[in-house]
Design goal:
The complex is a heterodimer of chains A (139) and B (142). Chain A is 34% helix and 17% strand. Chain A is of the alpha/beta class.
Amino acid sequence: MKTRTLKILLIEDNKAEVYQVLDAIMTHNEDGMDVISSLEEKRLNNRNNYPDLIILDLNLPQHSGRQLISDIKKHEELKTNPIIVLTSSDMEDDIKTSYKKNISSYIVKPPENEEFQRAIFSALDFYSITQMPTNNYTR
Amino acid sequence: MKTKKRFDILIVEDNPADVYLIRECLSDRGIIPHLHIVNDGVEALKFLERQPPFDDKPLPKLVILDLNLPKISGFQVLEFIKKDNRFKSIPVIILSTSSSIKDISHSYSLNANCYVVKPKDLEDFSRVVGSIEDFWLETAEV
């Protein structure tokens, strides 16, 4: 079965967290990952950089991840892209509210790295067999 | 890793062969899925609203939804779910034979959580169901 590698946009401003996700994604052999810490980044203006999938942490020190979900849903080019919330919060309220804001899925970050990698692999395995809303599904 | 607990899935599918295949491809490791099958969109809405004969049924944790349904279309079911505050947080996976750009875009515009094209090959179908199970039952929070 033909599956696609994914172009991933990670919205995260903690370096250690970025490396952890990057490590898992590269081990899974994806198309690459772009990292931004806010939607103001100029890179987002370049159509070639538009991702398949967005991974977002709710607990961003500089910005509210919760507000970011709403902002992405208003962003003309990103609003239908699947958003995976990857966060330490396991609060029912955060989970329900995120889904009500039309994220695609919610993952609570496992504390152990092995479990963390397994969770990322599971997500990537699943999303690589889905169809994306952008033209990238023809890749 | 999640502990074993009940996980109710609503499958909205009118093709009995596909229903059979989904059941067969789900494993019995980890979380046990409880499958609730309805064959058309009207039954799907009745199930969610807990109208007879579904008054004793639980709210599903996940919906797997075909688009080509009798009575009302999968799009109408999706729209109903995602516009109702009681149900909009339930993830909906579109599982359809259609690979048309129009159907995919329309599904996402109606806030489908994801869109999966039903593979024609049995092995691929099994892999897809396994991936849905592994991610939605064992990894994601719902």
